[in-house]
């Protein structure tokens, strides 16, 4: 599947002579955000070929991966189970748009305390899952594995070879790994981590055999799913001037970073940049309900 590249027109880009396009992977599917769709494609095929009837995975309350897994399972006639971080959600998941929609698509939700969730990869917890749900195909939190990376190698297509720099948001690193594998040696890939921490580089290296990439680590805004008024204003301004909606957890931080780097003359005049819009728009409603409680400005839908 091929998604279109949209040219972004902004005064700052024109004055610095930088060309910026956004690959609209957010439009790949009305509910499965771009990269999660790519990451699930070959995993779902494998589950079906192994005659497994259930996809089982893990995630937090607003997880794009949980939403996408529920949807992919339903579309492929599979069951799904979501192991959700936070016991307290057992009583209020109906008010959470991500979880309510996932449940509406048939996902069985199992809420576990954070202390247990942290140990979800222990033999003990695996044994519990086996006894409870027997025949399932396990997807890791965030969905990254070999087949997920393979799916993300299909994000770039032939026409994208003209770009000098490809930019992607980074969570677990699976998406950028697929992108790196699909680049030409003279292209460069910039990753914008949406969370703090230095472990990502090693995670990415496991899946790639090129070194034409680097991480821009100054744009996490305090950590995973952390936002500021500045970031919210940026999302609303960006949508007003380009018609492109951004999600607050991933793609907004990347675009903020790209434009900040343009402003600081980090790119040579004439550079052609392609930024991947990995989706995540389903999470805006949930983020807005958190912002409302804190009396902060909301993201315009
Ligand atoms: C999950 C996600 C990412 C990060 O993908 P990884 O493969 O985990 O690095 C980026 N953008 C969006 C919108 C996502 O949902």
UniProtKB/TrEMBL annotation:
Keywords assigned by UniProt, alphabetized: Pyridoxal phosphate
Keyword Cell division annotated: no
Keyword Metal-binding: no
Cofactor(s) required for function per UniProt: pyridoxal 5'-phosphate
Transmembrane feature ranges: none
Boundaries of every Tryptophan synthase beta chain-like PALP domain copy: 9-279
Listed SUPFAM superfamilies: Tryptophan synthase beta subunit-like PLP-dependent enzymes
Listed InterPro entries: ACCD_DCysDesulf (IPR027278), TrpB-like_PALP (IPR001926), TrpB-like_PALP_sf (IPR036052)
Domain of life where this protein originates: Bacteria
Family affiliation: Belongs to the ACC deaminase/D-cysteine desulfhydrase family.
Protein name (database record): 1-aminocyclopropane-1-carboxylate deaminase/D-cysteine desulfhydrase
The species this protein was found in: Maribacter polysiphoniae
């Amino acid at each position: 599947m091929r998604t279109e590249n949209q040219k972004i027109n902004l005064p700052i880009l024109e004055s610095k002579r930088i060309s910026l396009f956004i690959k609209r992977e957010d439009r790949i599917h009305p509910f499965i955000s771009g990269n999660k769709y790519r990451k699930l494609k070959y995993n779902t095929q494998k589950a079906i070929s192994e005659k497994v009837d259930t996809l089982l995975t893990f995630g937090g309350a607003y997880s794009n991966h949980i939403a996408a897994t529920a949807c992919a399972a339903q579309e492929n006639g599979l069951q799904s189970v979501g192991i959700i971080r936070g016991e307290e959600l057992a009583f209020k998941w109906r008010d959470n748009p991500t979880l309510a929609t996932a449940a509406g698509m048939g996902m069985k939700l199992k809420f576990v305390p954070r202390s247990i969730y942290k140990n979800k990869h222990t033999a003990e917890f695996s044994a519990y899952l086996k006894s409870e749900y027997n025949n399932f195909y396990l997807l890791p939190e965030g969905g990254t594995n070999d087949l997920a990376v393979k799916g993300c190698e299909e994000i770039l297509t032939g026409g994208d070879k003209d770009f000098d720099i490809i930019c992607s948001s980074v969570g677990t690193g699976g998406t950028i790994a697929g992108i790196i594998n699909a680049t030409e040696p003279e292209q460069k890939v910039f990753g914008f981590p949406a969370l703090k921490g230095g472990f990502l580089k090693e995670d990415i290296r496991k899946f790639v055999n090129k070194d034409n990439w680097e991480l821009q680590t100054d744009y996490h805004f305090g950590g995973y799913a952390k936002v500021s008024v500045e970031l919210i204003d940026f999302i609303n301004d960006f949508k007003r001037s380009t018609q492109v909606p951004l999600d607050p957890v991933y793609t907004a931080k990347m675009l903020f970073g790209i434009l900040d780097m343009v402003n600081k003359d980090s790119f040579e005049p004439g550079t052609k940049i392609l930024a991947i819009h990995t989706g995540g728009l389903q999470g805006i409603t949930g983020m807005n309900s958190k912002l409302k409680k804190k009396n902060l400005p909301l993201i315009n839908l």
